[in-house]
Amino acid sequence: MRTTVAMPQVGESVVEGTIGKWLKRVGEWVDRYEPLVEIITDKVNVELPSPEPGRLVEILVPEGMTVPIGAELAVLEVEAPTEAPPPPEAAPPEEALVGRRRVTPRVRRLAEELGVELEHVRGTGPGGRITEEDVRSFAAAPALGAPAAPAPREAAPEIPAEEEAVPVDPIRRTIAQRMAESKRTIPHAWVVMEADMTPLRRLRESIKEEFRRRHGVDITYLPFVIKAVVEALRQFPILNSLWAEDHITLRKRINVGVAVATDKGLLVPVIRDADQKSISGLALALGELASRAREGKLRLEDVRGGTFTINNPGAFGSIMSLSIINPPQAAILSMDAIVRRPVVVDDAIAIRSIMNLCLAFDHRILDGAGATAFLRAVKERLEGMGPSMPIY
Fold first, then answer.
1. 188 is known as an active-site residue
2. Catalytic: which of 31, 215, 218, 363?
3. Catalytically annotated residue among 31, 218, 273, 367
4. pTM score, two decimals?
5. Rounded to an integer, what is the distance from CA 154 to the centroid of its chain?
6. What is the pLDDT of residues 3-36, one digit of tens each?
7. Which 3 state secondary structure label does DSSP give 348?
8. Using alpha carbons only, what angle is made at residue 184 by residues 181 and 189, rounded to the nearest 5 degrees?
9. Domains in the chain and their CATH numbers?
């Protein structure tokens, strides 16, 4: 019996995903829940597990192609065959009918745009499938089915070129699309406040070595900020919402997405029910998610359902940043570097550890007064964290 594997839904506003890498080849066996394919979507790489044990008999979408949610990606033979599988089908003849091969909607749209009749195109994809490159090559050819003639070589410029074309990988393209969509559709507004982190800095210095010995991970300032944020979200639930055109949806669960820098780009794994965790629990969850993100081993449940995002550009030395909202969320908080500088305290000059907090918010959902009240609540909670603050 055969079954298909489809592109999963990984977020409220995600409508498509890109195939990053097939982790199994046609003919190979895959166990249930074993990673089958790497999917790039919504600023994250996830490994899609196989829904059933079986043999991969057909790959329907090649690496690098983007398809909508729900699109069929592959075919599995869910019962081990009793005889050797047949050899791969030979590529169809040059004039094979397109009806005998699968054509994705993206390829069909491209063919219509370029005025190409697909029945004349020879497919070079798996099983003779027509790819976007096949369509573009055919459109550029001077005659039906003929290969495109090489473009005439231009004379070398007198001055060597000072530019380099850097290919855009799928995850960078996804980030670009999502951020452009956010700025196009969400009226952004920002509010910035300073937080005196001096007491919290002393607390962290006093516990970090013991925490590392006990748990094997560092405790950074981020779990303390998350704790302050989730407590403020309970006080101001409008920040834990999304815009739904004719109404605003308030989310009951607080799932905090945390931006993690990796070699492949900025990924946003999610700490689910973050308001139910202690500071140490948040630190351990962060360590595990960041490790999986950097190793490219995030699971679907690691990126689903985020309701609020925290960005930490301060880890790289930033002292002021204006983040872009991760749609469809209502806001994103940036925490910048903690800098020791002179400030006025009780009519005297003192050296304090100061951090800038910047909240970007959807002006359709709330106004400046509400955003400022929320950020002030975060600031006050951070400034109230000192030596007596419990972390377990």
1. no
2. 363
3. 367
4. 0.68
5. 41
6. 999 988 765 556 778 898 899 999 999 998 888 9
7. strand
8. 110
9. 98-140 (4.10.320.10), 186-383 (3.30.559.10)
